[in-house]
Target: GntR family transcriptional regulator
Amino acid sequence: MFQGFISFHSDTGHMEDSRTHSSVTAAIYAPIGEKALVSRIRQRLEDAIATGVLAPGDRLPGESALASRFRVSLVTVREALQHLRATDLIYTKQGRGGGSFVAVDSSHAHALLERRIAALSRAEITDLATYYRTIVDGVLRTISAMGLEQNLGAVRETFLRSDPSDGAEARSVQGGLDLRLAGESQSVRLVHEQIRIQNDFGALLWIGLDDPDLRNSIRTLNETMLNEMISGDTDAAIQAREEAVTISLRWLLSRRNDAQRHERENNQQNA
Model:
């Protein structure tokens, strides 16, 4: 059912879907839900910009396309975009070749990310990481139960060909890998839950991929996970993946503590 859901783009090193959009970028525009629509759209796009999933100069889909993808009204989309314009995260060009584009520079994105991380509670981060682990555990065990491990050979080859040069590219590869694994489980529910958790937390969980050493460690653990799945050792694969999540979680909690300390120091200086 999900064959061809994600393919590899050899020019960028990213996993992309068959419609030429990055699978992770496409997940940003998944249906938004039914509550607090404007704030949830704004937060989702802010997170994507802050973590580099949406880079400076990237063009957002048109307002009508966004409304269709988020499954909200055009008025809701316009209100969310207006907030992003007011905070200088996007700008709009009129006429041919126009649209809404990511405007934030690296320093602005860094400040935005620091505020976002500082606002998270330790319990919230830990709970979301546990949820993330549960989904991946379900994906890998479903693949094993259905005897689909050998289908992961192509997934492994795609992953090994990726060569992310920075954290943003690595997060795109990581998100694409997670989505493709969910697709290989042939479970609509698991695909839906993987998209949901990526929108809520994925980019933040893997923010440590900005660090080259952590990026290499996570890549090695991902490769181990794929190799163990193909060889039929599901428990070892899950252990490797849980170790990757644990490493990233510790990094994020440390970053949160630093961000909160910087916020307190700035508040004291401005008092």
Residues 16-111 form a domain with the Arc Repressor Mutant, subunit A fold (CATH 1.10.10.10). DSSP finds eleven helices and four strands in the chain. Residues 1-21 have pLDDT under 50 and may be disordered.
